[in-house]
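Standup notes, structure subgroup. Blocker cleared on the 2-acetamido-2-deoxy-beta-D-glucopyranose input:
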Amino acid sequence: MKPIFQLSLILLCSLARDTSLVLAASDSVPHGKMPDNGTIFNISKQLCSGCIAESVEFLFTHNLARAAKWEPLLFWDFQLQKYARWWAGQRKADCELRHSFPEGDFKLGENIFWGSGSTWRPSDAVSAWADEEKYYDYDTNSCEEGQMCGHYTQIVWKNTRRIGCARVVCDTGDVFMTCNYDPPGNYIGERPY
Ligand SMILES: *[C@@H]1O[C@H](CO)[C@@H](O)[C@H](O)[C@H]1NC(C)=O
Ligand SMILES: *[C@@H]1O[C@H](CO)[C@@H](O)[C@H](O)[C@H]1NC(C)=O
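Run returned:
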Protein backbone atom coordinates (compact mmCIF):
# COMPACT_ATOMS: atom_id res chain seq x y z
CA MET A 1 0.00 0.00 0.00
CA LYS A 2 1.43 3.33 -1.00
CA PRO A 3 1.24 6.21 1.42
CA ILE A 4 -1.91 8.25 1.47
CA PHE A 5 -1.88 11.72 2.90
CA GLN A 6 -5.00 13.34 4.14
CA LEU A 7 -5.93 16.55 5.79
CA SER A 8 -8.92 17.07 7.93
CA LEU A 9 -10.88 20.19 8.35
CA ILE A 10 -12.13 21.53 11.59
CA LEU A 11 -14.62 24.33 11.60
CA LEU A 12 -13.98 26.96 14.17
CA CYS A 13 -17.35 28.62 14.01
CA SER A 14 -20.78 27.29 14.71
CA LEU A 15 -23.94 27.85 12.72
CA ALA A 16 -27.52 27.09 13.47
CA ARG A 17 -28.44 23.56 12.59
CA ASP A 18 -30.44 22.98 9.51
CA THR A 19 -33.27 20.76 10.58
CA SER A 20 -35.72 21.79 7.91
CA LEU A 21 -34.39 19.36 5.37
CA VAL A 22 -35.98 15.98 5.30
CA LEU A 23 -34.48 13.48 3.00
CA ALA A 24 -36.98 11.22 1.32
CA ALA A 25 -34.44 8.46 1.00
CA SER A 26 -34.04 8.19 4.74
CA ASP A 27 -37.69 7.20 4.94
CA SER A 28 -37.15 4.36 2.55
CA VAL A 29 -34.50 2.77 4.73
CA PRO A 30 -36.37 0.25 6.85
CA HIS A 31 -35.61 0.51 10.53
CA GLY A 32 -34.38 -2.33 12.64
CA LYS A 33 -32.22 -3.95 10.03
CA MET A 34 -29.22 -2.48 8.25
CA PRO A 35 -30.16 -2.25 4.56
CA ASP A 36 -27.94 -4.34 2.33
CA ASN A 37 -25.36 -2.89 -0.03
CA GLY A 38 -27.54 -3.50 -3.06
CA THR A 39 -30.37 -1.45 -1.60
CA ILE A 40 -28.04 1.37 -0.60
CA PHE A 41 -26.50 1.27 -4.05
CA ASN A 42 -29.88 1.44 -5.75
CA ILE A 43 -31.05 4.32 -3.55
CA SER A 44 -27.75 6.14 -4.10
CA LYS A 45 -28.19 5.78 -7.85
CA GLN A 46 -31.62 7.39 -7.55
CA LEU A 47 -30.12 10.19 -5.46
CA CYS A 48 -27.55 10.77 -8.18
CA SER A 49 -29.68 10.77 -11.26
CA GLY A 50 -27.81 11.92 -14.34
CA CYS A 51 -24.48 11.18 -12.62
CA ILE A 52 -21.46 9.52 -14.16
CA ALA A 53 -20.42 6.19 -12.60
CA GLU A 54 -17.58 7.84 -10.68
CA SER A 55 -20.05 10.14 -8.90
CA VAL A 56 -22.33 7.24 -8.02
CA GLU A 57 -19.28 5.49 -6.53
CA PHE A 58 -18.48 8.53 -4.36
CA LEU A 59 -22.08 8.77 -3.19
CA PHE A 60 -22.65 5.06 -2.62
CA THR A 61 -19.54 4.63 -0.49
CA HIS A 62 -20.44 7.67 1.61
CA ASN A 63 -23.94 6.30 2.09
CA LEU A 64 -22.64 2.88 3.15
CA ALA A 65 -20.76 4.56 6.01
CA ARG A 66 -23.81 6.65 6.92
CA ALA A 67 -26.24 3.75 6.82
CA ALA A 68 -24.05 1.95 9.35
CA LYS A 69 -24.84 4.82 11.77
CA TRP A 70 -28.49 5.20 10.71
CA GLU A 71 -27.79 8.64 9.36
CA PRO A 72 -29.92 9.93 6.47
CA LEU A 73 -28.40 9.13 3.14
CA LEU A 74 -26.75 11.96 1.24
CA PHE A 75 -27.76 13.08 -2.18
CA TRP A 76 -25.60 14.34 -4.99
CA ASP A 77 -25.54 18.05 -5.68
CA PHE A 78 -24.38 19.31 -9.05
CA GLN A 79 -23.41 22.72 -7.69
CA LEU A 80 -21.09 21.04 -5.20
CA GLN A 81 -19.81 18.81 -7.98
CA LYS A 82 -19.07 21.91 -10.04
CA TYR A 83 -17.15 23.41 -7.15
CA ALA A 84 -15.22 20.17 -6.50
CA ARG A 85 -14.37 19.86 -10.19
CA TRP A 86 -13.15 23.43 -10.23
CA TRP A 87 -10.83 22.74 -7.31
CA ALA A 88 -9.64 19.43 -8.77
CA GLY A 89 -8.87 21.33 -11.98
CA GLN A 90 -6.83 23.84 -9.98
CA ARG A 91 -4.77 20.97 -8.52
CA LYS A 92 -4.25 19.09 -11.80
CA ALA A 93 -0.89 20.71 -12.51
CA ASP A 94 0.70 20.20 -9.07
CA CYS A 95 -1.46 17.57 -7.30
CA GLU A 96 -0.79 19.33 -4.01
CA LEU A 97 -2.88 18.16 -1.10
CA ARG A 98 -4.43 21.53 -0.43
CA HIS A 99 -7.84 22.68 0.71
CA SER A 100 -9.85 25.08 -1.40
CA PHE A 101 -10.62 27.30 1.58
CA PRO A 102 -8.23 29.35 3.63
CA GLU A 103 -7.68 27.95 7.13
CA GLY A 104 -10.54 28.96 9.41
CA ASP A 105 -12.78 30.11 6.58
CA PHE A 106 -14.56 27.00 5.40
CA LYS A 107 -17.89 27.59 3.70
CA LEU A 108 -18.43 23.91 2.98
CA GLY A 109 -17.13 20.70 4.45
CA GLU A 110 -14.21 19.37 2.45
CA ASN A 111 -12.29 16.09 2.47
CA ILE A 112 -9.30 15.75 0.19
CA PHE A 113 -7.15 12.80 -0.86
CA TRP A 114 -3.89 12.28 -2.66
CA GLY A 115 -2.61 8.92 -3.89
CA SER A 116 0.61 8.01 -5.68
CA GLY A 117 -0.09 6.57 -9.13
CA SER A 118 -3.15 6.89 -11.32
CA THR A 119 -5.29 3.97 -10.20
CA TRP A 120 -6.96 5.34 -7.06
CA ARG A 121 -10.74 5.22 -7.30
CA PRO A 122 -13.45 7.13 -5.42
CA SER A 123 -14.02 4.11 -3.19
CA ASP A 124 -10.32 4.18 -2.18
CA ALA A 125 -10.60 7.77 -1.01
CA VAL A 126 -13.84 7.19 0.86
CA SER A 127 -12.47 3.99 2.45
CA ALA A 128 -9.33 5.82 3.58
CA TRP A 129 -11.45 8.53 5.17
CA ALA A 130 -14.05 6.16 6.64
CA ASP A 131 -11.34 3.89 8.09
CA GLU A 132 -10.62 6.65 10.59
CA GLU A 133 -13.70 5.41 12.43
CA LYS A 134 -11.33 3.27 14.48
CA TYR A 135 -9.68 6.42 15.83
CA TYR A 136 -12.92 8.13 16.81
CA ASP A 137 -13.99 7.83 20.43
CA TYR A 138 -17.67 8.68 20.81
CA ASP A 139 -17.56 9.02 24.61
CA THR A 140 -14.93 11.73 24.62
CA ASN A 141 -15.91 12.95 21.11
CA SER A 142 -12.28 13.08 20.09
CA CYS A 143 -9.73 11.33 17.92
CA GLU A 144 -7.17 8.98 19.38
CA GLU A 145 -4.03 10.92 20.20
CA GLY A 146 -1.85 11.53 17.18
CA GLN A 147 -4.53 10.27 14.78
CA MET A 148 -7.02 11.92 12.48
CA CYS A 149 -10.71 11.17 12.44
CA GLY A 150 -12.23 14.36 11.04
CA HIS A 151 -12.75 12.93 7.58
CA TYR A 152 -14.82 10.15 9.09
CA THR A 153 -16.89 12.43 11.29
CA GLN A 154 -17.67 14.65 8.29
CA ILE A 155 -18.84 11.63 6.30
CA VAL A 156 -21.30 10.55 8.99
CA TRP A 157 -22.18 14.07 10.22
CA LYS A 158 -25.88 14.08 11.10
CA ASN A 159 -26.88 17.39 9.51
CA THR A 160 -24.97 17.05 6.27
CA ARG A 161 -27.32 16.36 3.35
CA ARG A 162 -25.55 16.94 0.05
CA ILE A 163 -22.19 16.15 -1.47
CA GLY A 164 -20.33 16.74 -4.68
CA CYS A 165 -16.91 15.28 -5.42
CA ALA A 166 -14.30 15.13 -8.14
CA ARG A 167 -11.32 13.00 -9.09
CA VAL A 168 -8.46 14.08 -11.29
CA VAL A 169 -5.35 12.34 -12.56
CA CYS A 170 -2.74 15.08 -12.23
CA ASP A 171 0.00 15.94 -14.67
CA THR A 172 2.34 14.25 -12.16
CA GLY A 173 0.54 10.94 -12.82
CA ASP A 174 -0.92 10.85 -9.28
CA VAL A 175 -4.52 11.22 -8.19
CA PHE A 176 -6.22 14.04 -6.33
CA MET A 177 -9.79 13.74 -5.08
CA THR A 178 -11.98 16.20 -3.25
CA CYS A 179 -15.47 16.05 -1.75
CA ASN A 180 -17.52 18.98 -0.53
CA TYR A 181 -20.30 18.70 2.04
CA ASP A 182 -23.29 20.88 2.77
CA PRO A 183 -24.29 21.76 5.39
CA PRO A 184 -20.74 21.30 6.68
CA GLY A 185 -19.96 19.10 9.68
CA ASN A 186 -17.24 18.95 12.33
CA TYR A 187 -18.56 21.66 14.60
CA ILE A 188 -16.40 21.76 17.67
CA GLY A 189 -18.23 20.48 20.72
CA GLU A 190 -20.90 18.66 18.71
CA ARG A 191 -21.03 14.95 18.05
CA PRO A 192 -21.37 13.63 14.52
CA TYR A 193 -24.26 11.29 15.33
C1 LIG B 1 -20.83 -3.83 1.62
O1 LIG B 1 -19.85 -2.92 1.23
C2 LIG B 1 -18.84 -2.75 2.19
C3 LIG B 1 -17.97 -1.62 1.70
O2 LIG B 1 -17.68 -1.74 0.35
C4 LIG B 1 -18.08 -4.04 2.34
O3 LIG B 1 -17.09 -3.89 3.32
C5 LIG B 1 -19.04 -5.12 2.77
O4 LIG B 1 -18.37 -6.35 2.81
C6 LIG B 1 -20.19 -5.19 1.82
N1 LIG B 1 -21.16 -6.12 2.34
C7 LIG B 1 -21.76 -6.99 1.56
C8 LIG B 1 -22.78 -7.83 2.25
O5 LIG B 1 -21.51 -7.10 0.38
C1 LIG C 1 -31.22 -2.94 -7.48
O1 LIG C 1 -31.66 -2.59 -8.77
C2 LIG C 1 -31.49 -3.63 -9.72
C3 LIG C 1 -31.81 -3.07 -11.10
O2 LIG C 1 -33.02 -2.35 -11.05
C4 LIG C 1 -32.36 -4.79 -9.32
O3 LIG C 1 -32.21 -5.85 -10.25
C5 LIG C 1 -31.94 -5.27 -7.94
O4 LIG C 1 -32.79 -6.29 -7.49
C6 LIG C 1 -31.97 -4.12 -6.95
N1 LIG C 1 -31.40 -4.60 -5.70
C7 LIG C 1 -31.96 -4.40 -4.52
C8 LIG C 1 -31.27 -4.99 -3.36
O5 LIG C 1 -32.97 -3.74 -4.38
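Discussed briefly. Residues 130 and 152 are 5 Å apart (CA to CA).
Next: hand off to the docking folks.
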